[in-house]
């Protein structure tokens, strides 16, 4: 069964450093999403992406965040200057056109020291 | 999207049916009820969704009341692997919108031997 994959599974970085989280959505999906979950808190929407542009973003998704689909298979989330409060699980999801079910990857645990 | 209310936690004996309730009294006519679950910080997993008719798939059944103000997710024969946080989400189903999912706190289901 096709699935969303994410790399790395765990990323440790120093405050102020840039990180790139990578996702490979399901191959025929056209909508892509990033969510995050701070330890012990709710899953929060960050951004959705369709047709090579952002379709919606939350208040969390400020100028330090960016997303990109650099090729036909990868979808990335870049955090330019990480802060301690960016420590969280980051989940990528994708959905098919004309079907609204989102399929999530296993997540990347980001730890900012 | 309409607000949902779920009990914070429930227990269920292994092999028995788990019935997880959700209240969504402000649901509007074009909003669907979606259920996802999250097993121990893994990525959320889609279970089922419906508009007004009861739905069943290989994972679960969804019973929506006639007034659509509440619903129940039924896991017919719960196993230990069904221990997870279950989220009831109400949203408009957008075939071309790629809309975000708004997660609440969910119900933490513990399946006990």
List the quaternary state of the chains.
heterodimer
Form type of chain A: globular
Largest sheet of chain A: 7 strands, mixed
- Average pLDDT across residues of chain B? 92
Give the beta-strand count of chain A: 11
Low-confidence sequence ranges of chain B? none
Which outline of chain B best applies? Answer: globular
Tell me which protein chains meet in the greatest interface and how many residues each side has. Answer: A-B, 30 and 23 residues
Q: How many beta strands in the DSSP annotation of chain B?
A: 9
Biggest sheet descriptor of chain B: 5 strands, mixed
Between the first and last Cα atoms of chain A, what is the distance in angstroms? Answer: 37 Å
- Beta-strand portion of chain B reads over 45%
Distinct helical segment count of chain B: 0
The structural class of chain A is mainly beta
Compressed to H and E, one letter per element, the order of chain A equals EEEEEEEEEEE
Residue share in helix of chain A: under 10%
Q: Strand pairing plus helix content of chain B: what structural class?
A: mainly beta
What order do the helices and strands of chain B follow?
Answer: EEEEEEEEE
Helix fraction of chain B, binned, reads under 10%
Uncertain segments of chain A: none
Rg of chain A to the nearest angstrom? 13 Å
SSE map:
The complex is a heterodimer of chains A (113) and B (113).
Chain A: E1 5-7, E2 10-13, E3 19-24, E4 31-37, E5 43-50, E6 53-57, E7 65-68, E8 75-79, E9 88-95, E10 103-104, E11 108-112
Chain B: E1 9-13, E2 18-23, E3 31-38, E4 45-50, E5 55-56, E6 61-64, E7 70-75, E8 84-92, E9 107-112
Parallel strand pairs in B: 1-9
Antiparallel strand pairs in B: 2-7, 3-4, 3-8, 5-6, 6-7, 8-9
